[in-house]
Design a protein that fits this description.
The protein is α+β, with helices and mostly antiparallel strands. It has 4 helices and 14 strands.
């Protein structure tokens, strides 16, 4: 009994010291499985087996691939068989990662191959997810248990048109082997000892300037008896005769000149540096425009430019692309006093009321509300329907000029200018105008009022259906209705005659419905 207790304590002690999966380790597994296919596949639940190979990127995350093999399925009475095969790739995440145990979840992609025998001659793809546990028996050996579901949203099976879900449970042993180890970086060498500071060499003492003597009053190093220029400024360089040197010929001797390369002819200050009174970067003497405003862009001669010719110099001009002729403010930006979109200086109508459409020169565009080509200011018939021919006053052209009318046939009487009033309709069998006729008649009335010299005959016509007498009376009543409407709109009745012609002079065959509809009409005939 004591021996058994000792062995048990030893096993517990060993298990407590086991470790879970480690980073950069390979896992090889062999497992048995139990597969339950979706009911629509009509396949029995079977036991199979498979292999798995994985790699841990870290203590928490790994990647693995597995293959599941299954025994043959016999299909019905045909003695045909299939051997389903399931392969998958998964991302594995360890949830509880401690000594001796590792609970994990996984997800990935599965490929299901059912063979080449109908109706299982297809391959499906799907996504899978699962949960499992590794129970470590030793540092490199673990019992692995797992449950997984495979979901195929669009199966290729002819047995069903729906999505399918398969379930797989597995149990097996997993062997862990370390992968490549990262070679630790060699320790950094200890910092080198800082050498003791080296004492700087003492500066070489400058040779003392010999005290002036009576022989060198200007202290230029040339004795007075040999000095041709006895009053040389202190610090100037001199030649052997004691006269100051001036290499750039700017009037400031070398040695005193702080700008020894000044261009010839450039005015300089007391230090020999070029003067630039207007601060444009071009020295005085070269600057042909010495009074350039501050900030203006200048050329090599110091003169400013004005690219858009608006009177405001480049560099100061905040709107350098102003159109020619536009009025600008002090910053070179154009103004638009009446806010019509045409700049002052170009705008020929500078006081256009706000919101008025204007042309390219800023003047109001003639309005044409009804789009008939006649401006509203000249249009006597402002509501002309689209497409209606109008005269110079914007009113409907009732009659074409006689020169434009087709010539009569030889021997036929001269044709009267005629207008067929398309769109003027009546209630069936009655002389009551329909509401859609008013728009046409309003335009006729407006045109007659705009052309008071025109007199018209209003002619009513019917088709040949019904008695002749009835048709004449109906056509006369309809012509009279049109005359009354025009009179109510201001046209003098003395300018209009109303006559009914029944079914005479048809303009289309009465043998068809469309032809009879054309023959039921009202015409305007121009009277001499």
């Amino acid at each position: 009994m004591r021996a058994l207790t000792t062995v048990g304590l030893a096993l517990l002690t060993g298990a407590a010291g086991l470790e879970a999966q480690h980073a950069r380790e390979y896992e090889f597994s062999m497992f048995g499985s139990y597969t339950k296919y979706d009911a629509s596949f009509n396949l029995a639940k079977k036991i199979g087996g498979g292999v798995r190979l994985g790699y841990a990127f870290g203590d928490r995350v790994g990647l693995e691939a597995d293959v599941l093999f299954q025994p043959e399925y016999t299909l019905g009475t045909s003695n045909s068989t299939i051997e389903p095969l399931i392969g998958g790739v998964s991302l594995v995440v360890n949830l509880l990662h401690g000594a001796g145990n590792s609970l994990y979840v996984l997800g990935g992609y599965s490929l299901l191959d059912f063979g080449a025998t109908a109706p299982y001659k297809f391959t499906d793809g799907g996504i899978h997810g699962g949960v499992g546990d590794r129970i470590f028996l030793t540092r490199h050996l673990a019992l692995r248990l797992e449950a997984r579901a495979i979901y195929t949203p669009d199966t290729k099976s002819s047995l069903t048109a729906n999505s399918v879900t398969h379930l797989v449970g597995s149990a097996g042993l997993a062997i862990f082997a370390p992968g490549s180890k990262r070679t630790p970086a060699p320790p950094a060498p200890p910092p080198a000892a800082t050498p003791p500071p080296v004492a700087a060499a003492p500066p070489t003492p400058a040779l003392p300037t010999p005290p002036p003597t009576a022989q060198d009053a200007d202290q230029d190093g040339v004795p007075d008896q040999d000095d041709a220029c006895p009053n040389t400024p202190l610090g100037a360089k001199v030649d052997v005769r004691g006269c100051p040197l001036d290499t750039d010929q700017d009037g400031v001797p070398d040695g005193i000149d702080q700008c020894p390369d000044t261009p010839v002819g450039t005015p300089v200050d007391a230090t020999g540096c070029a003067m630039d009174a207007d601060h444009d970067g071009v020295p005085d003497g070269i600057d042909k425009c010495p009074d350039t405003p501050a900030g203006a862009t200048v050329d090599a001669t110091g003169c400013p430019s004005d690219s858009d010719h608006d009177g405001v110099l480049d560099g100061i001009d905040k709107c350098p692309d102003t159109p020619a002729g536009a009025t600008v403010d002090a910053t070179g930006c154009p103004t638009d006093t009446d806010h019509d979109g045409v700049l002052d200086g170009i705008d020929k109508c500078p006081n256009t009321p706000a919101g008025t459409p204007v042309d390219a020169v800023g003047c109001p565009v003639a309005q044409d509300a009804d789009g008939d080509g006649v401006p509203d200011t000249l249009d006597k018939c402002p509501n002309t329907p689209p497409g209606v021919p109008v005269d110079a006053t914007g009113c409907m052209i009732l009659f074409r000029p006689e020169s434009a009318a087709a010539p009569p046939r030889p021997g036929a009487p001269p044709r009267r200018p005629t207008l067929v009033l398309r769109g003027v309709n009546f209630q069936t069998g009655r002389s009551v105008l329909t509401a859609d006729s008013y728009a046409v008649l309003d335009q006729v009335a407006a045109s007659l009022l705009a052309n008071p010299e025109i007199k018209i005959e209003i002619a009513g016509y019917t088709d040949n259906t019904g008695p002749v007498g009835v048709n004449i009376r109906l056509s006369q009543a309809r012509a009279a209705a049109v005359r009354a409407y025009l009179a109510r709109n201001g046209v003098s009745p003395t300018r209009m005659l109303a006559r009914g012609y029944g079914s005479r002079t048809p303009i289309a065959p009465n043998t068809t419905i469309a032809g009879r509809a054309q023959n039921r009409r009202v015409e305007l005939h121009k009277l001499p």
